[in-house]
Amino acid sequence: LLTAISIERCVSILCPLWYRCHRPQRLSAVVCALFWALSIAFIAAVTSLCLSHEHEHCRVALISMYVLNFTIFAPPMVISNVILFVKVLCGSRRRQPKRLYIVIFLTVLFFLIFVVPLSIWNFLQQFNYTAVPSQVVFLLACINSSINPFIYFLVGSYRRRCSLVSLQVAFRRVFEE
């Protein structure tokens, strides 16, 4: 979903007129459904191969899954967020970047920092290579799981006179945009 959201935000910034006037209404739903279907099909295949106790087929399936993640899902997410970041930085200085763009950028940034190491670690495990202990990468993944509410809170209360804004108000401000 982060990939689909990132691509959609990038298109909305690069082609705002087309996005508002000509984008098919159900495009987001279709893209998300396709990503989900691809993921579910691939995970089902990997699971069935790994449950059949054929170690070599399982290993090849897992390697293929990680390669799919690194070639299909991660690059569009990274590229669209770099474009988003550059556009927001180089855009109009009069306007502050929209909170939603900041939330998406921070969510993807922390995902890349905290979750990608786990995927890389799992990939390298298939070749019996261990660079860091498993506890480190699992801790990073756990941090990512709990950091999003803090992102929403901080962005929602950003530049307000009262810095102690309730979490509910912060969420409402972020998602109003």
Explain this structure.
It contains eight helices and no strands. It is 79% helix and 0% strand. The protein starts with a helix and ends with a helix. InterPro entries: GPCR_Rhodpsn, GPCR_Rhodpsn_7TM, MRGPCRFAMILY.
Provide a compact summary of the structure.
Helices cover 79% and strands 0% of the residues.
Distance between the termini: 19 Å
Total strands: the figure is 0
User: Low-confidence parts lasting 5 or more residues at pLDDT below 50?
Assistant: none
Structural class, please? mainly alpha
Q: What is Rg?
A: 19 Å
Hey, roughly how much beta strand do the residues contain? Answer: under 5%
SSE ordering: HHHHHHHH
Major pleated sheet: none
Summed over residues and divided by their number, the pLDDT gives a mean of 78
Shape: globular
Tell me the layout of helices and strands.
Blueprint: H1 2-14, H2 16-21, H3 27-51, H4 55-90, H5 99-114, H6 116-125, H7 134-156, H8 167-176
Helix pairs in contact: 1-4, 1-5, 3-4, 4-5, 4-6, 5-7, 7-8
Please describe the structure with a list of short key phrases separated by commas or semicolons.
177 residues, mainly alpha, globular
